[in-house]
Amino acid sequence: MKYTEIMVRYGELSTKGKNRKDFIGRLAGNVTKVLRDFPEVEIRPKHDRMHIILNGAPFADVDQRLKKVFGIQTYSPTIKIKKTLTMIEETALALMKATFKPGMTFKVNTRRSDHNFAYDTNELNQMIGDYLFGQMDNLKVEMKQPDLVLRIEVRQDAAYLSSQLLRGAGGMPVGTGGRAVMMLSGGIDSPVASYLALKRGVEIDMVHFYSPPYTTEKALNKAKELTGILANYAGRINFIAVPFAEIQETIKAKIPEGYLMTIQRRFMLRLADQLRAKRGGLAIFNGESVGQVASQTLESMAAINDVTTTPVLRPVATMDKTEIIALAEKIGTFDLSIQPFEDCCTIFAPPRPKTKPKVDKAREYEARLDTSALIDRALAGIEITPIYPNDQFLADKAQEDAALL
Ligand SMILES: Nc1ncnc2c1ncn2[C@@H]1O[C@H](COP(=O)(O)OP(=O)(O)OP(=O)(O)O)[C@@H](O)[C@H]1O
């Protein structure tokens, strides 16, 4: 089917009265970003709906991007035609043939803002319905809850027909919820937490700790590639790689084994917080889930959280692992997350971390270290990479390796 435009209905933002303009502007900007390699597409944001004029771009390709943009409740691929009865009949039939499946019920639903048009809505519903019955077998009409609604809108400039109401990603346009940093490991949970933060409209910068030479470049590239998948939901995400080996070595040399993990996490949180402040963010997100591992008991969280008063938000805190995995599969990060590249935390993980660390003890042990000098050196070594949807980092590396052989 050659659709000419997509009609987009806004999500939660329609209820946000005075912020509406900002929301619509952001959404239009985000749609523009994800469709940037379709230069022919025009985006026309209006007060109640957005029209995406395809100008020849294939709907199926645009659809792949659009369904991941937050702030869209539903959308319909639409065909704009001349306002003649014959054109409406022919297009209605073509749409039905493309989208109707045997066993479905349907109805025709006409709206008319051009009141000078020769037929009113009841007449059009009747005439188009009759025409379709004459052309197709096994049609069944259902007024209350039909499986397919053939929508006809007769406006001043043209008639618009659609037969699909597709569900958008929901949520709020990224950027309307403010800025934050996200602590992204290469695991399953933090990419899911990132997705959920983006869904509420928060613009995130990824903060990733890596520890060369203890961790390989592949582990770093895995986190970058996960960011590439998540950028589908954001348009673009900045990835901040923070060198962490010196801090880990120092902690390992000077801190009792039971507190290695707690103190490492306190340093991670401090670094994330400083980066947040520098970049104008208001919160820190992470992928912790209550009780999942030793560092994620409430006692542990409290002992780690002690280093900052900045809100630390944990979108997957109350989810079961199976629920997190289901979401990871849905958003497309799971297969990459389970690739076995070592994370900096696994390498320096003590065999028996304390599950109930004490804040006082953590502070006392930490006083043995030159915290601010360690933090400053790590911050001096950060690298920032802007990452776009589906940017690949692992494949490039594999190709380079192959080329060297
Ligand atoms: N190398 C890292 N860089 C950035 N953040 C990290 C790193 N390692 C852990 N974190 C943060 O700490 C959280 C808890 O990490 P941990 O390794 O204990 O748990 P996890 O359940 O395996 O999480 P994930 O599946 O996200 O790795 C992560 O979700 C992430 O937000």
TrEMBL record:
Query: Which superkingdom?
Result: Bacteria
Q: Name one Pfam family in it.
A: ThiI_fer
Pathway of this protein?
Cofactor biosynthesis; thiamine diphosphate biosynthesis
Q: Which PROSITE patterns match?
A: THUMP
The record's subcellular locations are: Cytoplasm
Residues that hold ATP according to the record: 183-184, 208-209, 265, 287, 296
**Keyword Glycoprotein attached:** no
Alphabetic keyword roster: ATP-binding, Cytoplasm, Nucleotide-binding, RNA-binding, Thiamine biosynthesis, Transferase, tRNA-binding
What's its EC?
A: 2.8.1.4
Reaction(s) the record says it catalyses: [ThiI sulfur-carrier protein]-S-sulfanyl-L-cysteine + a uridine in tRNA + 2 reduced [2Fe-2S]-[ferredoxin] + ATP + H(+) = [ThiI sulfur-carrier protein]-L-cysteine + a 4-thiouridine in tRNA + 2 oxidized [2Fe-2S]-[ferredoxin] + AMP + diphosphate; [ThiS sulfur-carrier protein]-C-terminal Gly-Gly-AMP + S-sulfanyl-L-cysteinyl-[cysteine desulfurase] + AH2 = [ThiS sulfur-carrier protein]-C-terminal-Gly-aminoethanethioate + L-cysteinyl-[cysteine desulfurase] + A + AMP + 2 H(+)
- Residues in domain THUMP? 60-165
According to its UniProt entry, what is the function of this protein?
Catalyzes the ATP-dependent transfer of a sulfur to tRNA to produce 4-thiouridine in position 8 of tRNAs, which functions as a near-UV photosensor. Also catalyzes the transfer of sulfur to the sulfur carrier protein ThiS, forming ThiS-thiocarboxylate. This is a step in the synthesis of thiazole, in the thiamine biosynthesis pathway. The sulfur is donated as persulfide by IscS.
Assigned protein family: Belongs to the ThiI family.
Q: What is this protein called?
A: Probable tRNA sulfurtransferase
Q: Which organism is it from?
A: Lactobacillus xylocopicola
Organism taxonomic ancestry: Bacteria, Bacillati, Bacillota, Bacilli, Lactobacillales
